[in-house]
């Protein structure tokens, strides 16, 4: 492995997609069936591809997001404060009319009401991608990802590795896209890293061809121009 990396460093190979290089290195080590550490970034131990089927019976938890408790508390707190603020609006409105400063007080109440509505929505937009729990069903050979909806209720997303797409450039709080839904998973929180490798598709063969269609078209165009130049001479 060190020899491959040293040769690549000497010849300065440039891959158009760094994700392909990462998947290729993982694939090489994974197919060697050796148990070794890949890098400090991943710190993954590679096992046999059948381990997750042999060691799992029924539905088992394979992942837990450490921020689950904080996210749940934050969402409940924002919902309670927003509900209290909305319920207090009629009472505060009547007091504002009695005081005589209706215009100024109504403007303040409108701003407060706007915050009470938008705050839970904003928190939900940020945290809806966070996977709280991930389960593996050995009988069905499927995964179940849990997330929280706006009202802190658990949503389940059943999928297979074929439903997962890893974008070349991940967005904010997005590590993969499952059935068109962006989700956030962290490798270090998996109890068994082989599940992470399988879900992210690092156990699949990778096409290491450096030439893509655009490069091929450019090569054909250059060859045609060169032939025209020779014919003119």
Features:
alpha+beta; 3-stranded antiparallel sheet; about 230 residues; disordered N terminus; single chain; 4-stranded antiparallel sheet
Question: Please, could you describe this protein's structure?
Answer:
The chain is of the alpha+beta class and about 230 residues long. It folds into 2 domains: about 1-65 and about 130-200, no CATH class; about 70-125. It contains 7 helices and 7 strands. It has helices at about 1-10, 20-30, 50-55, 70-100, 100-125, 195-200, 215-230, and strands at about 60-65, 135, 140-150, 155-160, 165, 175-180, 180-185. The strands form 2 sheets. A 4-stranded antiparallel sheet has the order 1-2-3-4, with no helix packed on it. Strand 2 (about 135) and strand 3 (about 140-150) form a beta hairpin. Helix 4 runs antiparallel to helix 5 (about 100-125). The chain is elongated, with a radius of gyration of 27 Å. Residues about 1-20 and about 30-55 have low confidence and may be disordered.
